[in-house]
């Protein structure tokens, strides 16, 4: 299949651009974006160009910008420098968000991305053909050598970035991949195949679910983040959405590694020598209600006891008029009813041990904004 046919097949397969539609190419002046700009025009799309100049390489950056203006009639946008490659990418993608944009990412970039993510996080997630913010990648089925050959065949000049060897991609491209080719000559094709596999769950979610399934407890639950809990009742696994609910209490937190459970023998307040039993006695909680009272713990340490011992980072609420202690130091009512279906022996995780990428996952507190995973 000819190169132009492969690009068109990629576009149609993923519905990247409507037939004959408008598209803005984000161009650097390199072979990949030059090939992208020329090929899309040859395929009959209405193509414009935009170049973001960060000025990182002084006069060389200015010459790149001038090349893009003269060759592609590109709009030039001056952008501030940034500390990391990810920040530079975010600045580029923040431009011209009112239109459909295309980048010149190739199969070679895909391989480098998979290798980096495999080493950095154990993920094989690749570059998306179509990002949620309106950036598409029509060249993901081409190799870098093919875009350079296309430019030479069509007598298209292109620029070379002298800073590429200093980047993480440059390290992978110039040092790691040549070594891996010595192990197996088809290493790039095999890495590319990983990017095409069905997406897996984030590593932290997988680990949390495996731990839940491996537990010998009859009933157990764990939080998967974003308000979703996995609940195992003996041989059945189900998903529930929302914060942890224990009896009349609704409990949320942004802290990692917290669980809600019933009291246990020898429980003590975190950082203090006071026993939890003494806390219940001081708060005049009837003995019959203590085993059903929720306790927020990190490991074996008690962080908070809703309605009795407060913590600024744990938000525990309940409907007005429900049974239990009214507030810190308040008087308990004579009765308290455990929410139907709650097993007082069960520990409920507020947060998983870690979020995808190594950070802590979290449930949103009321009014807080949830974050989303970045994609390169």
What strand line-up does the widest sheet have?
3-2-1-4-5
CATH class of the largest domain: Alpha Beta
Our count of domains comes out at: 2
Number of helical regions: 11
Average pLDDT taken over every residue: 81
The CATH H-level superfamily of the largest domain is HUPs
CA-atom Rg in angstroms: 28 Å
Termini separation (Å)? 29 Å
CATH architecture grouping of the largest domain: 3-Layer(aba) Sandwich
Quaternary structure annotation: single chain
Number of strands: 15
For this entry, give a set of tags.
376 residues, alpha/beta, Rossmann fold, 2 domains, five-stranded parallel β-sheet, elongated, disordered C terminus
Protein described:
The chain is an alpha/beta fold and 376 residues long. It has two domains: 3-195, HUPs (Rossmann fold, 3-Layer(aba) Sandwich), CATH 3.40.50; 203-358, no CATH class. Helix content is 32%, strand content 18%. The chain contains eleven helices and 15 strands. The chain has helices at residues 3-14, 31-42, 59-72, 85-93, 107-121, 144-153, 168-183, 187-195, 203-214, 276-282, 287-290; strands spanning 22-26, 46-53, 75-78, 101-102, 135-136, 219-225, 228-233, 236-241, 244-246, 249-253, 258-261, 295-298, 301-304, 314-317, 348-349. The strands form four sheets. The protein has a five-stranded parallel β-sheet, with helices on one face. Strand 12 (295-298) and strand 13 (301-304) form a beta hairpin. Helix 2 crosses helix 6 (144-153), helix 5 crosses helix 7 (168-183) and helix 5 (107-121) crosses helix 8 (187-195). It is elongated. The model is unreliable at 325-375 (pLDDT under 50).
